[in-house]
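Example record for the data management plan.
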Amino acid sequence: MRKKYVVGIDIASKTLAVSVMKSAGDPEILSVTIGNTEPGIKSLFRALRKLKIKLEDCWFCFEHTGHYGLLLSVMLNEKGYTFSAVPALEIKSSQGVQRGKTDASDAKQIATYALVHAHKLKASILPSKTLLLLKELLSYRTFLVRNRTQLKNSIKARKLLSKVIDNKWMLRDMEKGIEKHDLEIKKTEKAMESAISGTELENNYKLALSVTGVGPITSTAIIVYTQNFTSFDNSRKFSSYAGIAPFKHESGSSIRGKTKVSNYANKWFKALLYNAANSAVLCDQELKAYYQHKAKQNKHHLSIINAVASKIVGRIFAVINRQSPFVNIYALKMSQKLA
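Corresponding structural encoding:
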């Protein structure tokens, strides 16, 4: 669905640079910088109306910047205006070589991107408050786990020094810090369970959890990053997003590189799926047999784990599409043979 105008917005923590255009070759109708605040965004709406531009005729486009763009997304969503939060990499890769950089020029580039790619631009849907809460809880848990790991590593290093200097009080303080982080992590995980319980997310959460190797954190994360399986059509697309889908690397007859995954991926989620895969190959007979078969072919451990992670994503999407828990048919057949 095309609109008469596009509004390109470059988002910063305190300001929003705005560029309004009607076609890619024409000059800007409006170029202004406003505050990244509720009054600032309302002033943009007023400025557009003064120019006789109906906000219903505008397509707002900006980079997906997380927290900094959340207020803008919420206000546009509440008014029912059309907007697209596009990955920054997608916009940057479409711009080619750029000379000079300002917020205003970035806003104009975003508006130009929206005009040129209007045929494939999709309107963004703001996640529910529950999904936003879960995303924040996941982020906070990651922060706590990272800090706890740093404390554990620091203790190991300082224990070596304890034979030379008296630093026992430091070690005690850090151990207390680890205990505190353990409690906060458990508290955060319980908050996730509470947020999911009794909502429309609970059924899909349990279905994903039924897949071997998938734990509560992985199940919660895939619910969040797929917006409860509405933002990805199939497992292949999500595997590409997570950076576990392999792509060919070849050109003509001279270049025949190894099949590889993309570096542009959600690396945190990729690590989460690798943990799930490492767990699955220990307790899932089919995946264990697959791993052993590939290992005999001298495949690298990470290459096999990547393939296993892709299989797990495929299983998750399959149980969601079927709306029935995962059943390991391979394990059932093996038990019948032994019976």
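Summary line stored alongside the record: The longest strand covers residues 5-11.
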